[in-house]
Amino acid sequence: MILEICALIILISRYNMNRVFLLSCLVFAMTACCKTQKEAGVIINQKENLWQITINGRPIFINGVGGTNRLDVAAASGANAFRTWGGDVEEIRKNSQLASENHMYIMQGIYLPKDSTLYTDAQFRKEKIEEVTLLAQTFKNDTSIFAWGIGNEIELANAANTPAAWQFVDSLARLMKSIDKRHLVSTVISHNPGALDMIAKYAPNLDFVGINSYGDILNVKNIVAESDYVGPYLITEWGPTGWWETRLTDWKAPIEQTSEQKRIVYEERYKNAVASDSRCMGSFVFLWGQKEERTPTWFSMFVEDDVPELPLNGEKTPMVEAMERVWTKSEPKQTAPVVNQLTINSIDFNPYIGVNEKFHAVVEVSDRENDRLTFVWEILKEATITATGGAYEPRPERAGEVMTTELNQLEVAMEDEGYYRLYVYVLDNMGYVATANIPFAVQ
Q1: Do 361 and 408 belong together in one domain?
Q2: pTM of the predicted model, to two decimals?
């Protein structure tokens, strides 16, 4: 295109009519052409130690959410991207449509297993290469995707933190980039300094690394700086303190933060980890939805909406309020109730109850807007079927009935011995719900 324009300029110069005007138009066209070629797609710019994603010439700091739930709320709260963990062609097409409808970008995941033996298995490698080839060819011009994420925590507990695994990830990155010139290619690891060193040595063709981190998120900056890895990163999962990082009861039940404690750490962790390092290009907060992991509320930024006899409709938690505040840098018009403490018989840790003995539960709560509050109480057995790495866990069995009160307290007795957890949901009836739970033993 540029050579053709230069030839036209030479021809025009031989004539006198409107020479200056025509030359000006052609120079403008040539400049626009060069600019379009340079700015199309997604690139990473580095100026000194500042790394930044640029999409079609526009710098963007990724304010993202994990999952595809309630993307309208995410966009209205200031989010500009969402992340997935995998999907086939049809699912990715649906994700692209969701992104377009909500004016957001996608970090599209490509599933890889944590089994290190598979990375030397010829059949597995062949099938994965075919899958990646198909995805790259199908979506190479998709304007909603900004990056591919090849694998999520394949090295968790050093499962596939091997040269063979990372070399295969690197070969998939090279393959994808040979077909798809528009998008960035990355992988996602857990809070694992050793994995960063392995990537630096065996997967140099990745454009950036995604790091998942929870209670230790403030140290991400340091582990990146001290590793052999010299590129940029996104914090691809973060949120409350994890169940593996918190204190335990006498019977080894993990203590979950109240929703107000989570709101505070979400805001602090965004400011002091995500937004404080020039090598960090943004993040994806977890989980912009609801899931069971030790409890129904631990990582859930929305509550459940389809549980029989539980009068919840997917309301927002205070963590959504937190993200709106940090993303938009303004105060939300509506805020959530503030839960300060939940106690059983005035005890907030390790309460023991006798069989058929009535106990007294109280939740201390306030509301900035003085909205009418409704209290929903539920007792579940302590989770015994558990998993790691975010794998499926069933909802624990309920004990007794769900109770709804207009007061912030409850009296109830337990008929059977065992380990349980009392949950309270404080609804402001304006779209928000605050949460708290406390494990207790019946003997």
Answers
A1: yes
A2: 0.89
